[in-house]
Write a structure and sequence with these properties.
protease; alpha+beta; 9-stranded mixed sheet; Immunoglobulin-like; PepN_Ig-like_sf; Aminopeptidase N; Peptidase_M1_dom; 21% strand; 859 residues; zinc ion binding; binds (3S)-3,7-diaminoheptanoic acid; binds zinc ion
């Protein structure tokens, strides 16, 4: 497959102001007739042909200006038509088989309904078209089909007509007045019911809102609807963005490659991000739904009204929209906890990407398959990069920048450069050097040291940006760091400040300290960097107990634990040193368990140990087995050391009745955390306690938390709980997904055997991405199972990739990065991982998706 390069961009020679589509819908055969108005693009080099992309289409007929023609030719899957004049009307008829579409790109069948997914390049699987984001058209669509099978017919924009036809058929006509690229096209046809409501916009327009689901799912749609209204309100208040159609439809489908899709006026969602009630969804599920509903809604401006010129600019809409949804969720759920969660995601998903063979800048320079670039780097690091601009400008100046951006580029296909320039002009920042964040990959490392002499504290900083594939040498980048210096006696600091490290090295002097201050740095995680410092242990204990920046407090706790575990893994700890290390952790941990001024939600965060993935990142070459053992041992030690405190805590939070308010949610978070430690410390007595929590639960958060703990233990209670859970929720796919995940992700010594058995379970299928991910993503993220020393885990994952690739390449390719980490794993396992990548690479007929990921991972 060819490599596509950012530098090769050229505008399309034609514009297509209007597109008319007629769909004759059927599950096995759908006929599509498209009528395109085509005119020369004055801003592009002229061409005597037009290239219309296609993928797996059956061409029925072509006519130009009303005359059937056969002068067309094919170039691979693309259709090439000769066009001699300045403007033409082109009509193309094609036929497709949605029932056979297992890739879930283009038009496909899911549970008897028809739906579409076009981003990035799925529209070409529906009809021949210049399937690129810089070709914007208004769409008028007529849908026809059997009324009994497809009572509801939905498309982008507003419904302009509908009616009955002969033979039990009916039709609907839709018009979307906003010019859009083909990737934002959507249609849905099926037997659906709606939760309907209204939102009145800031200018007083009423918008009809619908959340469409299958009949039985209606009672679980209220949270999605509430989330949508909150998002609409928030975007008006925070970014001055108003919705621009009279209708907003959301449709939930159970077969979906990712979370959701922001099609204009017709969002298509994975059921996972729509359906929730206390009995079937956890608090985390509720939050994820709120976040994803917001994200897709915010795309209406950051993505749809202003779209991307080409797919290299993906972070323009994704990074910015992730930042917008993060800020929204901070406002809804509390800033501190949300920030900690977002940083945890960045570190466990993006940092490993940035330090591995798949590292790429947030604005990539080349790709073979764009689906492979919907990454944590483009999304989450992209959001961090824009957040840094916001931190440097301040929220108000930043808003002036985004206002200017929306204003300047409304209705256009823009670039990341356009965005940066708008922020520069609107916010009054100089971002010349800052642009490096768009072009350089790799997580910068910042080495921090403090000297103290004669009342002066000197902070010295040194940055290095590690080499990444194709980028051996890097330039220093501007790194904004919020810092504070604490007085040890009073526990206060004299105010925080934002410093910008924009050279390879920098020294800053702070006067007037009667004794060496305690440094708190990268507060709020102002920069997505790895801070490296050898802070005295007592400083970390100090900060973990009292830093007034919640993120920094969490960070100090993490650093304390990471430092201890890394030292233990280095093998250099004497018994005495181990005791000293544990004692420091215990001091901080004890303060966290008992501090009355902490709310439970924050307590729950602070109690979490750094993830195994994050620990692996701290080591140049990691031994997953030993990391797992050390981490579990620390958990067990804390569980024993704090046994009675944890029991008291668990009793206290267990008495809090279920509700969705903050304190009750915090209580549930702490409840399961406490159980996790108790189970590590004393499995037998904790099993009883976990069973009680499981059996007595009146909500999914408690039930799933208890089952997670039980799934890691041996014995009858484990078996009973898993069986009970399965029988209770049989037939509810989203909950059965959890059942698969809990077992695949468990700390149970035989987890790998459980995964093998589950892959043969009658409820397992490769056809449903949620189910595949529920088993195998959990497994690939379960280090002690996946990294079993004999390589069995690697074989299992490679087998999965090979059998999934012909069915659903996009989802198959998502599993490759787990094997691609081999360079950072100890040599014995590394060789086994590499061998599995080579086995995949040698397979015939590999998809472009998997081929690209495997070759990059080996390269
Ligand atoms: N824009 C879509 C992602 C499409 C992924 C295509 N492989 C969802 C989102 O980011 O909102
Ligand atoms: Zn998005």
């Amino acid at each position: 497959p060819p490599v596509i390069r950012r530098e090769d961009y050229t505008p399309f020679p034609w514009i297509l102001p209007e597109v008319r589509l007629r769909f004759d819908l059927g599950l096995e055969a759908t006929r599509v007739v498209s009528t395109l108005t085509v005119a020369r693009n004055a801003k592009a080099d002229p061409s005597s042909t037009i290239r219309l992309n296609g993928d797996g289409l059956q061409l029925v007929s072509v006519s130009i200006d009303g005359e059937p023609v056969n002068t067309w030719s094919m170039d691979g899957d693309d259709l090439i038509l000769p066009l001699s004049g300045d403007a033409h009307e082109v009509e193309i008829a094609t036929e497709i088989d949605p029932g056979a579409n297992s890739q879930l790109m283009g038009l496909y069948a899911s549970n008897g309904m028809l739906c579409t997914q076009c981003e990035a390049e799925g529209f070409r699987r529906i009809t021949f078209f210049p399937d690129r984001p810089d070709v914007l058209s208004t769409y008028s669509v007529r849908m026809e089909g059997e009324k009994a099978q497809f009572p509801i017919l939905l498309c982008n924009g507003n419904k302009v007509e509908e009616g009955e036809l002969e033979d039990g058929r009916h039709f609907a006509e839709w018009h979307d007045p906003w010019p859009k690229p083909s990737y934002l096209f959507a249609l849905v046809a099926g037997d659906l019911v709606a939760n309907s409501s209204t939102f009145t916009t800031m200018s007083g327009r009423d918008v009809e809102l619908n959340v469409w689901v299958r009949d039985g799912d209606l009672p679980r749609t209220d949270h999605a609807m509430e989330s949508l209204k909150k998002s609409m309100q928030w975007d008006e208040e925070t970014f001055d963005r108003e919705y621009d159609l009279d209708l907003y439809n959301i449709v939930a489908v159970s077969d979906f490659n990712m979370g959701a899709m922001e099609n204009k006026g017709l969002n298509v969602f994975n059921t996972k991000y729509v359906l929730a009630d206390p009995d079937t969804a956890t608090d985390a599920d509720f939050d994820a739904i709120e976040g994803v509903i917001a994200h897709e809604y915010f795309h209406n401006w950051s993505g749809n009204r202003v779209t991307c010129r080409d797919w290299f600019q993906l972070s323009l809409k994704e990074g910015f929209t992730v930042l917008r949804d993060q800020l929204f969720s901070q406002d809804m759920q509390g800033e501190a906890v949300k920030r900690i969660e977002d940083v945890r995601i960045l570190r466990s998903a993006q940092f490993p990407e940035d330090s591995g063979p798949l590292a790429h800048p947030i604005r990539p320079d080349s790709y073979r398959e764009i689906s492979n670039f919907y990454t944590a780097t483009v999304y989450n690091k992209g959001a961090e990069v824009i957040r840094m601009m916001r931190s440097m400008a301040g929220p108000e100046a930043f808003r002036a920048g985004t206002d200017l951006y929306f204003d300047r580029h409304d209705g256009e296909a823009a670039t990341c450069e356009d965005f940066v320039r708008a922020i520069e002009d609107g916010a009054g920042l100089d971002l010349e050097q800052f642009r490096l964040w768009y072009s350089q990959a790799g997580t910068p490392k910042v080495e921090v040291a403090m000297r103290y002499e004669g009342e002066t504290a000197t902070l010295s900083l040194k940055q290095t940006v590690p080499p990444t594939p194709g980028q051996p040498a890097k330039h220093p980048m501007p790194i904004p760091l919020r810092i504070a210096l604490f007085d040890r006696e009073s526990g206060e600091h004299g105010g925080e400040q934002l410093i910008v490290l924009d050279t390879a090295e920098k020294e800053l002097a702070f006067e007037g300290f009667a004794q060496a201050p305690v440094l708190s740095i990268n507060r709020g995680f102002t920069a997505p960097v790895a801070i490296e410092r050898t802070a005295p242990r007592e400083d970390l204990v100090f900060l973990a107990a009292r830093d007034d920046d919640s993120f920094a407090r969490y960070e100090a706790m993490q650093e304390l634990v990471v430092g201890h575990l890394v030292a233990a893994l280095g093998g250099g700890l004497s018994d005495e040193e181990r005791e000293v290390g544990q004692a420091a952790i215990a001091e901080a941990f004890g303060a966290i368990l008992t501090d009355d001024t902490l709310d439970d939600s924050m307590r729950g965060e602070l109690m979490m140990l750094p993830s195994q993935t994050y620990l692996m990142e701290q080591m140049l070459v990691a031994d997953p087995g030993r990391i797992h053992a050390e981490r579990e041992a620390l958990k067990a030690w804390l569980g024993q050391h704090f046994h009675s405190t944890l029991e008291t805590l668990h009793d206290r939070v267990s008495a809090v009745p279920y509700s969705l308010d903050g304190p009750a949610r915090g209580a549930r978070k702490v409840k399961t955390q406490a159980l996790v430690y108790l189970a590590a410390g004393d499995p037998e007595s904790a099993a009883e306690r976990a069973w009680e929590q499981f059996d007595g639960a009146d909500n999914m958060t408690d039930r799933q938390g208890a089952l997670m703990v039980l799934a890691g233990l041996e014995g009858a209670l484990r078996t009973n709980a898993l069986l009970d859970f399965y029988n209770r929720y049989k037939g509810n796919d989203l909950v059965i997904d959890k059942w698969f995940t809990l077992q695949a992700w468990s700390t149970h010594p035989q987890a790998i055997e459980h995964v093998k058995a589950l892959a043969k379970h009658p409820d397992f299928t490769l056809r449903n991405p949620n189910r595949v991910r529920s088993l195998y993503m959990a497994f690939a993220g379960n280090p002690h199972a996946f990294h079993q020393a004999d390589g069995e885990g690697y074989r299992m994952l490679a087998d999965l990739i090979l059998s999934l690739d012909p069915i659903n390449p996009q989802t198959a390719a998502r599993f490759v990065p787990a094997l691609g980490r081999w360079r950072r794993i100890e040599p014995h396992r590394a060789a086994l991982m590499r061998a599995e990548l080579e086995r995949i690479a040698a397979a015939e007929n590999l998809s472009r998706d998997t081929y690209e990921q495997v070759t990059r991972s080996l390269g």
